Amino acid sequence: MRMQPLKLIDSDIFNSAAFCHSQCVSRSSGMPIPYKEFQGFRVPVGADEGRLRAACNHPLQPGTVVISSYPKCGTTWLQHIVFLLLRGGRPADSASQVVEAVPFPEQDGLEEGANPRALKYHLPFRQTPMSKDAFYLYVARNPKDACVSYYHFLKDLPGYHIKDFDEFFEAFLAGEVPYGDLLDHVLEWQEGACRTSNVLLVTYEDLSRDREAIIRRIANFLGLQGLDDAAFKDVLEYSSFEYMRDLASRDDFMLKYLLQSTGGQKGTEGHRPRMLRKGVVGDWRAHFTPEQSARMDEHFSRKMKDTSWEKAWPKDMAHERPATEP
Prior knowledge:
The protein has helices spanning 49-56, 75-86, 95-101, 105-108, 143-155, 165-173, 182-194, 204-209, 211-221, 229-238, 241-249, 253-259, 290-304, and strands spanning 19-20, 36-38, 41-43, 65-68, 118-121, 135-140, 199-203. By secondary structure, it is an alpha/beta fold. The strands form two sheets. The chain has a four-stranded parallel sheet with strand order 5-4-6-7, with helices on both faces. α2 (75-86) packs antiparallel against α10 (229-238). The radius of gyration is 19 Å and the shape is globular. Residues 64-307 form the Sulfotransferase domain. It holds the Pfam family Sulfotransfer_1.
């Protein structure tokens, strides 16, 4: 059964009480984590009320592809893959071309009347515009790697002033960061996927280990089974993490783009935010202590108990690297 179009956001909630512009402070760690409140949900400090409202209520055309995830869980990777699939494997000339073709309306807004074929979101399911005729791709990542990647991303952005990983870990575990608790985000999208047939859930880990198989699943889901072998080979070649990282590093566009998320604040000398860092599975083991790993395991077990995610990532979240991994 397909989900009918939903009006998820009522216009009367977009008032000063629902959208707080003040800096909030992490209660667990005492570390100031700047964010804004939007309908009881935490969004980045640079978020704009008007753009968020428009993003939540953007009318989707039939066939629109909506790519979503919690931050640093693979949204940008899927953004590139969908860009390539919709162009028959033809690569981008620049990183800006991908961003313009697959925009991020909750941050960048959309021009009036614009109807791009694909959109990128980080909002929870309840705030994402829904249509029975759209396609929804959601990518999840194990919380330990997501935590480390999010830490490296935010610490280099002006305005966040994150001291070290230990402090960030406490805030992340408590959900006191922009976009809240990763596991709540995943569960809400999982619940949504159970109610409609036009949501495809994939994981960052599967994408990393067998990109070809996941891209074929995505292509089939989008009705692109007719993509010829040569075009698919190009999609595979130009969607490697190394290629995407090189594309993003060729000019300063991505740096300027990232700084928009801080509301235009100037960066600190020597800090260069990166959208794409390592792209590997298991990097968290170089950051987590055994005690932090155990606490995240307990948090995961409590949140995911009796859900389809309960047994997810057993090897990827094990503190000792499995012997079968390099």
